[in-house]
Amino acid sequence: MPNAQTATPRANGEIHLAVWSATIAISVEIFTCLFGFVWSLGRMIFDLSDAVAMIEASGTALLTLVLAVLMARMFYRHEREGAGAQQPT
Fold first, then answer.
1. How many other C-beta atoms are found inside a 10 Å radius of the C-beta of residue 19?
2. Where do the TM regions start and end (predicted)?
3. CA-CA distance, 29 to 22, in Å (whole number)?
4. Running DSSP on this structure, what letter comes out for residue 3?
């Protein structure tokens, strides 16, 4: 099974593109999580009766974590199966 060391230059480019795409997607998810948490925390501080704000922040953080783990699993499964480094027939 070809890997990053034995793959063609085109396949190596596809692997690097996949790595950068996953990195950018996870970075956006983390930023979204932090923004949602700060937004909800601000709502809770300025409106002490709004307990829903903390639940929203927790839900956003949990959803972001689940999505990041799923994306990482898909990426590593793709790399392990060598789908990004297959030789043309």
1. 14
2. 17-39, 51-72
3. 11
4. -
Tell me the residue type at 5: Q
Summarize pLDDT for 56-83 with one digit per residue, the tens.
667 777 777 777 777 778 777 777 776 5
57 within domain boundaries: yes
Distances from the Cα of 60 to the Cα of 7, 39, 42, 71, 83, angstroms: 39, 11, 15, 16, 32
Q: Which whole number is the average pLDDT over 18-36? A: 78
> Is residue 36 domain-resident?
yes
Inside any domain, residue 21: no
- Tell me the residue range of the domain where 48 lies: 26-80
Instruction: Provide the token pair at 57.
Output: 């922040």
Query: Would you say residue 59 lies in a domain?
Result: yes
Helix pair angle (9-46, 52-81), 10° resolution: 170
